[in-house]
Design goal:
Length: 345
């Protein structure tokens, strides 16, 4: 199990983490800042110059999952991870990757009052929380207060919050340990989708409103939006998989088989395994029917109808190309054969 300690820069995450390992048997600490330090030495400066924060690097997010999993394989028990996560899509990617490996995560937020947080930042020296030190570390911590405040909406809905305004680091660790033991800091409810080990077959179903906008859903377990649908089970027809997934994800029960729009071959590209992707036309979804959609909280956090242009900012590039050609196939009443989002044949 992982106890992920979140909070603003300077909230005392690392101090609490090292206090916590004295209170939870068979526990150890993994600080993802160490992974960032290693990447700063391994990656070329040109690559590092493309980002303003190491969390923007996909390789860092992937290595955090891989490193945590490897440590738990060597040191079974509780892994305590003190790390600020302010972007929900990064939380989705990292926690989703851990869930796929059947690693439960207890998400804890340390939340001192802002005046106290600022006072602590101003009065502290270099700490293990920071790669920088002195004035640079203080400036970095202050710069992140506003993004932290903006992220509190989703973090407090997701994490067990502890007000540390009047607590010492060890008292904070005691509160975390009590919450973990008593179940107050429950396992983060995120769908546990196993990572594929070979090429997969997946089926998505597109629905449209009266303005011909397409329905997209927002998964909790990975970044970016998606089409309703999922992986085809062994022995299952792709269209039937789409019907099943739509019922599970949206509460919609299709009475007819949706029309095929395209088949796309996605080449394996680590860490993805690629495979066949089917997209079907689910037809018009009335305003009344849309109002009755029921989403599984552990898998999807929301849905919306979007234009083709709006979808470009929500979908990963390959998925957006797939949508673009699916819309052309729908307009022409045809079926397209794609490879990596490009029509062939």
């Amino acid at each position: 199990m992982i106890v992920w300690i979140n909070g603003a820069f300077g909230a005392g995450k690392t101090s609490a983490a090292y206090g916590l390992i004295d209170l939870l048997p068979d526990s150890s600490v993994y600080d993802p800042e160490l992974t960032a330090e290693a990447l700063a030495r391994l990656l070329p400066q040109k690559k590092l110059a493309e980002v303003t924060d190491f969390q923007e690097l996909p390789i860092w997010r992937r290595l955090v999952v891989d490193t945590a999993a490897a440590l738990l394989a060597e040191l079974p028990g509780v892994l305590v991870v003190p790390m600020t996560l302010l972007r929900q899509e990064y939380r989705d990617e990292i926690f989703g990757g851990l869930a796929a490996r059947r690693i439960p995560v207890c998400h804890v937020l340390l939340a001192p009052e802002e005046t106290i947080l600022r006072s602590r930042i101003a009065g502290r020296g270099p700490s293990a929380d920071d790669l920088d030190s002195g004035e640079r570390a203080q400036a970095r911590a202050v710069e992140h207060i506003e993004p932290y405040r903006a992220a509190l909406g989703w973090i407090t809905a997701d994490a067990h919050t502890i007000d540390t305004s009047a607590l010492t680091p060890y008292e904070t660790a005691e509160r975390i340990a009590e919450a973990v033991r008593g179940g107050a800091a429950g396992v983060c409810e995120i769908v546990q989708t196993p990572e594929p080990t070979a090429e997969t077959v997946a089926a998505g179903v597109l629905f449209f409103d009266e303005e011909d906008r397409v329905l997209l859903v927002d998964p909790t377990y990975k970044p970016g939006w998606e089409f309703p649908g999922g992986v085809v089970e062994p022995g299952e027809a792709p269209a039937q998989a789409g019907i099943r997934e739509v019922a599970e994800e949206l509460g919609l029960h299709l009475t007819t088989v949706p029309r095929l729009l395209l088949v796309d071959w996605e080449a394996p590209r680590p860490p993805g395994c690629g495979g066949l992707r089917f997209l079907f036309d689910g037809g018009l979804l009335s305003q009344e029917a849309a109002g009755k959609l029921v989403l599984p909280d552990a898998e999807l956090r929301g849905w919306r109808f979007v234009t083709e242009e709006e979808a470009a900012s929500l979908l990963p590039p390959l998925r957006h190309e797939r949508l673009r050609w699916a819309l052309r196939a729908r307009e022409r009443s045809t079926v397209l054969n794609l490879q990596a989002g490009v029509p062939v044949g």
